[in-house]
Amino acid sequence: MTLTTPTEHPSDPSDPTNPPGHPDDATGATGASRSPWWFGALDGIVAGLLTVGVGTLLASVLVAMGLAGGQPAPVAAVSEAFIDRTPPWLKDFAISTFGTNDKRALLVGTVIVLTLLCAAIGVLTRRRMPVGLLAYAVVGAVGGAAVLSRPGSAPLDVLPVLVGTVLGLWFLRRSALGGLVAPDHLRGDTADDPGRRWLLGGGVGLLAAWAGGFIGGGSSAATASREAVAAAPATTAGSLVVPAGADLRIPGAVPFIVPNDDFYRIDTAIVVPRVDAATWKLKVTGMVEREVEIDWATLQGKEQQEAMITLMCVSNEVGGDLTGNAVWTGWPVRELLAMAGPKAGADMVLQTSVDGWTCGTPLTTLTDDRNALLATRMNGEPLPFEHGFPVRVVVPGLYGYVSATKWVTELKVTTFDADQGYWTPRGWAPLGPVKTESRVDVPKAGASVPAGKVAVAGVAWAQHRGISKVEVQVDDGPWTQARLAVDATVDAWRQWVYEWDATSGSHDLRVRAYDTTGEVQTPYDAPPAPDGATGIHTVTVRVD
Ligand SMILES: Nc1nc2c(c(=O)[nH]1)N[C@H]1C(S)=C(S)[C@@H](COP(=O)(O)O)O[C@H]1N2
Ligand SMILES: [Mo]
Question: Which residue ranges traverse the bilayer (predicted)?
């Protein structure tokens, strides 16, 4: 296929796309330059829709047939590959600007950038066809490379992007050639009809994308396997009872147990991994006497434990809500590690997720007698896909980024010298023990409350040490002891309430907590990076 650009040979008689008698001959302009620039832009955008739509559909079909490594959506793969290569400053900017909407923002950003890129390439193709087509092929190649760079991808995963890109190239070329053909009234039945082409191409692209999403989302083996787990009741479900009085039930304060649907979610996955429990495996490798691999059935055969554990994100700001408490059901990690036999000298376990995310956990926190679990249930239900189905790790006392691997597939016994988890080279500390902190839930900052008795309430946490005391300060008054809820476990947060005699005016309410060693939380302000925010949570309220 030779592609000549019309501008280079404006009146080449051998060029069938620019026949003699073409109106361009009279004006000196080419067909390409005659069509408005946005014709080219639309060509490019519709080509992009075709590529992405057909690519998504094919990828879903491959995954549904179990043929590929399982990379559902090319655009998501590009976004995820981008996340993993994002410099820390950009990541921090994204999180501080978009908060937990950072993923949606990234997807929207990716789509905007791709749209603009496709539009530019479309315009280019109508001017200099080989250059435009080459640019399009390069974008396709970058997409293919992004897909292949995703953990767990197989060579076949590149096929959908390839087919989609070839289709997009074909559409672009066809459109650019069409732009050289004279308008209807001069050309009769061979007339170019860009409007129809855009509608058809765009329609096919959107339909394919929708069908791909449908196949990828609903009917997967993973969904079926999760439903099967839900139907089989956990042997230990309900054996653990939240002590009466652990939940003060103050309106507006966070409940002691956070329902799964309200539980915060943090991870680097654009598309939530959907792992089929039947194919899930976890292996223990590295500095061990013998490598061990367990599957779902083996794990289910082990005696399950239930534990109340408060998860905590290191990115949580003072007063933030990237934390939640749940009842987790699972098998202690230490029993699996004991089967493998960690060798002397090892001090870290590098956990790996099916999506390639890793974290480094101190070996001792997984082998001592705390409730570090291979959790399979959250508040009695199978883990939601967002929270790690079929199996995740939960370790009391450590921030999630060094401990709480969702969709866990490998535990490599190693050393902090030899390995590091995902966030460490991105500026976060290798060790992440949870800091003692406390939060005012009610009244909310900026709220107006009536004068008189007001319940000031919230939570305090010092996972695996436990909370011994909470104090509240109003304006510059003395620190006064709050009433603590019944202590459920050292691994969970503890609610508190303070009966405040509110007088009219503007007031600052502050809280501070003590752990069971008697240590008070630090009053000094520190940002989340590198190892967790500190400071006194203060809310200002109006009393009428
Ligand atoms: N596979 C995987 N597991 C992960 C993460 C991740 O990005 N990928 N993020 C961790 C972090 S930083 C936190 S705070 C917790 C959050 O768990 P949740 O989303 O269930 O609340 O998951 C941890 N486990
Ligand atoms: Mo986190």
Answer: 44-68, 105-124, 131-148, 154-172
